[in-house]
Amino acid sequence: MAELVDAPDSKSGGATRESSSLSPGRKIIMKYCNQCGNDLEFKIPKGDNRDRYICSVCGYIQYENPKIVVGTVPMLGDQVMLCLRGIEPRINFWTLPAGFLENGESMADGAKRECEEEALITPNVQSMIAVVDVVHADQVHVFYRATINDENFGAGEESLDVKLYRLDEVPWDLIAFETVEIALKAQIEKEANDESPIYHTIQ
Amino acid sequence: MAELVDAPDSKSGGATRESSSLSPGRKIIMKYCNQCGNDLEFKIPKGDNRDRYICSVCGYIQYENPKIVVGTVPMLGDQVMLCLRGIEPRINFWTLPAGFLENGESMADGAKRECEEEALITPNVQSMIAVVDVVHADQVHVFYRATINDENFGAGEESLDVKLYRLDEVPWDLIAFETVEIALKAQIEKEANDESPIYHTIQ
Predict the structure, then answer these.
(1) Band of residue A28 on the pLDDT scale cut at 50, 70, 90
(2) What is the pLDDT of residues A49-84, one digit of tens each?
(3) Taking the domain A24-65, which CATH number applies?
(4) How open is the CA angle A154-A157-A161, to the nearest 5 degrees?
(5) B176: closest CA of chain A, how far (Å)
(6) Do A34 and B31 touch (CB under 8 A)?
(7) Interface TM-score (ipTM) > 0.95
(8) Chain B residues touching A52 at Cβ < 8 A
(9) Which option is the CATH number for B28-63: 2.20.70.10, 3.40.50.880, 3.40.50.2300, 3.40.50.720?
(10) Does the distance separating the beta carbons of A102 and B65 come in below 8 Å?
(11) Which of B24, B194, B199 sits opposite A104 (nearest CB)?
(12) How many CB atoms lie within 10 A of CB B115?
């Protein structure tokens, strides 16, 4: 299983994407203040206790905080719908529909949107099934239980294929990300009426 | 109950703090590229479907995504520990220890750190008890069940006072934020062994 070095959706939240091998908390080196255009410094602001990007002229502080990735485990009966990734990272590996939460949407709505974009379906999104801190990537991945009504799905722009797999036939060696594996295992191991998510931390 | 217009912790994640009345998704108007210092435009990038800040010269995209606020409901027997806010917003109102999740930490560790900072205690952090989308603020608030062992707590830098309240004596009219109220009600209403969080969306 590959280490997760990025979020499943390449389209947004890219600030963590381009240099994921850098140390957590400073993935992108920011040089200029987005308010006044002058040089940024990386130091502890007065009254704070950790390094931040601070403008050397206007004093504006540019905070960086973890991002949320939302996804679903879309079930049709005893089969799960997986998407074959058409983009890097992990092109040609199978994933659950998931991506960065956007401003102005709830987590469940974001999870539903990712299904629409990646698999052309609108699932019935239910309770959370897996919450995974991905500490080295400064991300939290949240997966929801979901159901779909039929096989009217298809490959969205970022997918090469979309297929149903029985839970005892998941292609584990070809799963794109560790958090996707965790969510799939939660779906397999948890009772259908269990609304408590599994909680996991990947350092 | 006041509408939540900010996260409980003023110290970090301030990009959403200074202009919370602006429309979601564009709380802070960014003017300059943090990579090359040239002018930013606000438009839909090629292959995307929503407005982003894009550098007019180098093409760098500065993504903005929701932030995570983590907190606890710290219990000593049948009493909950509340902090009297010493900072705006909602100075002199009672709150649960909570604040922005930082890069490089898990949500449970962040919730514990906020307790250390605001109430000088290290609680035993347990399962999630409340997850609240605060859509208009581009935030998700996550509260954990927690226990403390004794009354060795005190007011941290951002608190004026820290006190224990029996759950049937919570000062509801003086609670700082709606999400804190939701978390306290979850603590009251849920069975002690119920590990499924309540899930709520504030538009």
Answers:
(1) confident
(2) 899 999 999 999 999 999 999 999 999 999 999 999
(3) 2.20.70.10
(4) 40
(5) 22
(6) yes
(7) no
(8) 12
(9) 2.20.70.10
(10) yes
(11) B24
(12) 27
**Record: contact A66-B103, CB cut-off 8 A:** yes
pLDDT of residue A27: 67
Q: What is the pTM of this model?
A: 0.88
Q: Which residues in chain B are closer than 8 Å to A13, comparing Cβ atoms?
A: 63, 65
pLDDT of B8 higher than 90? no
Q: State the average pLDDT over residues B79-91.
A: 96
**Under an 8 A CB cutoff, do B101 and A196 touch?**
no
Residues in B touching A107 (Cβ below 8 Å): 131, 133, 140
Distance of CA B203 to the CA centre of its chain: 15
A140, B68 Cβ separation under 8 angstroms: yes
Write the CA distances from A167 to A27, A96, B67, integer angstroms: 36, 13, 33
Yes or no, beta carbons of A32 and B35 under 8 Å apart: yes
CA distance B77 to chain A (A): 24
A114-to-A11, A87, A88, B40, B192 alpha-carbon distances in Å: 11, 15, 17, 27, 35
- Say yes or no: domain A67-202 is CATH 3.90.79.10: yes
Best of B52, B100, B103 to disrupt the A interface (most A CBs within 10 Å) is B103
| pLDDT of A8 over the 80 cut | no
Average pLDDT over residues B98-115: 97
Asked if the Cβ–Cβ distance from B103 to A14 is below 8 Å, we say no
Tokens at residue A41, please? 């410094």
- Residues B13 and A63 sit within 8 Å (Cβ to Cβ): yes
CATH 3.90.79.10 residue ranges of chain B are 67-202
